[in-house]
Amino acid sequence: MECPNRYEVALATYQFEGEAEYWWETVKPKGEENPMTWERLIELLDSKYYPQDVQQMKEREFLSLKQGRMTVMEYAARFNELSRFALHQVNTEERKMDHFEQGLRGDIKSIIAGQTFTNFQEMYQRAVKIARVLEENDKETQDLNLEKRRGEFTRQDVQDRNGKRSRPNYPPEKGK
């Protein structure tokens, strides 16, 4: 939803309930004071709900974030969630894309690295597509290997039924 800048604080604080609403009553500008800016509201919320040590911990978590076993979508959601604690690392599209790329799994990163993107969203969408294609390829390879193994077992069964053994009897019979 688009919201003019001058209404951001009013719209956001209107949604406060319970403890957040009581807190807002104590910090909102009174009478002739300058109106609260969006940036200042964010600073106040961060200091209230994210103490400095928590912010530092979250920043370190962001800086070490790797996709690992997460899907690209899960990784991007975590990336976006934690990036607010390290804004200096993502203050341009180029820096944001670079940091995102560095955290991707190696197979996806190696494909993404050779491409040029104009913005983060474009890179993200391509990474999702690459991950999907790689997953489909892996599934196809597994299916082919399974079919191949089934074919080998079927051939072995036919040979066994004809009385021919293609491999020695195990375990060897005693006394022989």
Characteristics of this structure?
0% strand, 176 residues, elongated, mainly alpha
Q: What is the gist of this entry?
A:
The protein has 176 residues and is mainly alpha-helical. The protein is 64% helix and 0% strand.
Task: Describe the secondary structure blueprint for this structure.
Blueprint: H1 8-14, H2 18-27, H3 38-49, H4 52-63, H5 72-83, H6 93-103, H7 106-112, H8 120-161
Helix pairs in contact: 4-5, 7-8
Rg over C-alpha atoms, rounded to the nearest angstrom:
29 Å
Shape: elongated
Number of self-contained structural domains: 2
* Succession of helices and strands: HHHHHHHH
Q: Roughly what is the average pLDDT, rounded to an integer?
A: 87
- Termini Cα gap: 83 Å
- Main pleated-sheet profile: none
Report the portion of residues in β strands. under 5%
How many strands appear in the DSSP assignment?
Answer: 0
* Low-confidence runs of at least 5 consecutive residues: none
Fraction of helical residues: 55-70%
**Alpha plus pi helix count:** 8
- What structural class results from the helix and strand content? mainly alpha
What does this structure look like?
The protein has 176 residues and is mostly helical. It has 2 domains: 1-49, no CATH class; 67-161, no CATH class. The protein has 8 helices and no strands. Helix 4 runs antiparallel to helix 5 and helix 7 (106-112) packs across helix 8 (120-161). The mean pLDDT is 87.
